[in-house]
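User: Show me a protein chain along with its predicted structure.
Assistant: Here is one chain, sequence first, then structure tokens.
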Amino acid sequence: MRRAVLILLLLAGCKQDMAQMPRLDPLAHALGFPHDAAALLPPEGTVARQADLSPVPEALPDQIPLAMLERGRERYDVFCAPCHSPTGDGDGMIVRRGFPPPPSYHDPGLIRAPDRHFYDVITNGYGVMFSYASRVPPADRWAIIAYIRALQLSQRTPVALADAGVVEGEE
């Protein structure tokens, strides 16, 4: 009985609170650990848990739903129009305040550019444009590209054909 009381007293005096335990901050210097760091580097080839590993298509589908265009316009107005302008001519409000102008979506080179080019630019950035990969999910990137294609088509379709509901083919 005495032994049990003694063990209980010893255990009660041994405070093992996790908040009070010795620890190392993840990026702290720690001698004796690999690379003298408290945290190990992830193994080569490690993929983030939230990474999208699905294959990226090369182009937009032939039939684009109206909902996708509407979503594309909404996302374009938020992320692209400040620099590229609402019409895509590269004269947005940020440019008017001194930022270098981006190319117009109506330049022949960008009209001929594959859809995947726009996807890669949104994902990785290009020139002074930074990456929007963390801000624009892949589905929204494709919706924006669909809207950019609609902007391009709207600027090179004669009004008479647009009123008739007919658009001219690719140049």
